[in-house]
Backbone:
């Protein structure tokens, strides 16, 4: 240990070993070469008892390369390596202390080696004290951009092993907050992945609801990046979680998410919400969709134009998911959409000045659903509420309602055979009367949708 020449020779040998491994001089697919490589494992383990930072750092990098190989000596040496690693972390990575220079490289290498051991050697146990040490460093490092590259893989390795402890639950609460509040896109993504892994792998039971509440609440976070992150986590939940769980929480998820289609001022967020809602609706059985349809009926019956618009946009998503199966809901929703289109005639009769006052009295001006300010959009191309070009401000709420109602009708007419069914003929004729009037509407997008609907009608009949 105290011999300078021995240290130099050891360092040189480690450099040669690392270079050979790094440049592919060792064929890891060759059984013969793996047998020749196996005796190096205990030698590398012994090197970790050195007191020289340079030798330790290089030995850890070499060990990290061999621990992923099928070498018999690894199972025998991993406990000693693990003990050396925790000893190094205690000596060189004290929490709250600055880690610089060679010590920083040593600590990073130790964390990488520990990550590999936790991930690949399931039989290697970790005591509560050792887990506490790892989590302490992870908690500190996830806030440091330079050290996150080692902190997040280590955290995921811990979660992958399903290691239990109070500190794990406390840390994941902080990680969930960081997934919303961090200014770094990469950090938010890593946090989302870790939180989702935690929610799916750990027996959270009632605590799972706390994470749902957290992301539902942050749908209205002040920064757009945070709202996007919350939507992405919920979309992951809808795509990966069991159907039974989503069935139980269907309305709990649907109502706040749907309100963001009209409350969020970001077209991207509105589009992401629409896609997330479609993922949710795909997972739900008919009984849960019936509950959501009941909510939409209630929104259509609200006196505020804003709620009617929210109902129409949400209805369009339901039609997309149910397709031809939506036909059974036509007797309920066709009259409601007809009532939305009829508002155009009533506003025309009252005159623009009185119509503006009426909007204010009925809550038709820009307002809020769920307590957030409104700036709604609905795109002609997608019909999911991503873009909107308003006319004058006092026409905006009604124009919006007309547009999304026409979008919902277009989806219904395309998905169902409503235009040819005798049962709906009377109601459909009433709709065509309103749509015909909208061909002369001042807003170009309303005129465009009205024209497209008549195109669908004409295409059903031979000339």
Residues:
């Amino acid at each position: 240990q105290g011999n300078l020449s021995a240290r130099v020779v050891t360092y040189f040998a480690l450099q040669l070993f690392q270079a050979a491994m790094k440049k592919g001089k060792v064929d890891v697919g060759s059984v013969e070469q793996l047998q020749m490589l196996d005796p190096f494992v205990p030698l590398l383990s012994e090197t970790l008892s050195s007191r020289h930072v340079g030798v330790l750092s290089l030995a850890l990098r070499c060990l990290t390369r061999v621990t992923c190989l099928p070498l018999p000596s690894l199972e025998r040496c991993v406990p000693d390596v693990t003990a050396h690693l925790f000893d190094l972390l205690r000596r060189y990575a004290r929490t709250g202390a600055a880690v610089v220079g060679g010590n920083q490289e040593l600590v990073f290498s130790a964390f990488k080696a520990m990550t590999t051991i936790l991930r690949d050697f399931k039989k290697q146990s970790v005591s509560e004290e050792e887990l506490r040490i790892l989590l302490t460093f992870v908690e500190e490092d996830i806030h440091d951009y330079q050290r996150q590259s080692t902190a997040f893989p280590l955290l995921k390795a811990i979660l992958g092993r399903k290691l239990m402890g109070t500190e794990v639950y406390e840390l994941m609460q902080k990680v969930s907050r960081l997934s919303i509040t961090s200014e770094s896109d990469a950090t938010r993504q890593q946090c989302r992945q870790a939180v989702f892994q935690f929610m799916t792998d750990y027996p959270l039971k009632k605590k799972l609801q706390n994470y749902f509440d957290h992301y539902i609440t942050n749908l209205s976070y002040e920064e757009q990046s945070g709202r996007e992150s919350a939507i992405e986590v919920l979309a992951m939940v809808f795509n990966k979680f069991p159907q039974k769980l989503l069935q139980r929480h269907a309305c709990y998820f649907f109502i706040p998410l749907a309100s963001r289609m009209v409350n969020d001022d970001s077209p991207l967020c509105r589009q992401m919400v629409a896609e997330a809602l479609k993922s949710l609706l795909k997972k739900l059985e008919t009984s849960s969709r019936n509950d959501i349809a009941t909510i939409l009926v209630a929104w259509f019956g609200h006196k505020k134009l804003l709620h009617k618009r929210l109902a129409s946009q949400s209805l369009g998503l339901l039609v997309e998911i149910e397709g031809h199966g939506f036909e059974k809901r036509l007797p309920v929703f066709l009259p409601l959409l007809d009532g939305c289109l009829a508002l155009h005639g009533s506003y025309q009769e009252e005159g623009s000045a009185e119509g503006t006052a009426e909007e204010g009295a009925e809550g038709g001006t820009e307002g809020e659903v769920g307590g957030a300010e409104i700036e709604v959009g609905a795109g002609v191309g997608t019909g999911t509420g991503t873009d909107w070009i308003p006319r004058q401000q006092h026409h905006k709420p009604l124009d919006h309602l007309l547009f999304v109602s026409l979008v919902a009708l277009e989806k219904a007419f395309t998905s169902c055979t409503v235009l040819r069914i005798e049962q709906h003929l009377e109601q459909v004729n009433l709709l065509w009367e309103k749509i015909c009037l909208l061909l002369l509407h001042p807003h170009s997008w309303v005129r465009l949708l009205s024209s497209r609907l008549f195109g669908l009608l004409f295409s059903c009949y031979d000339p």
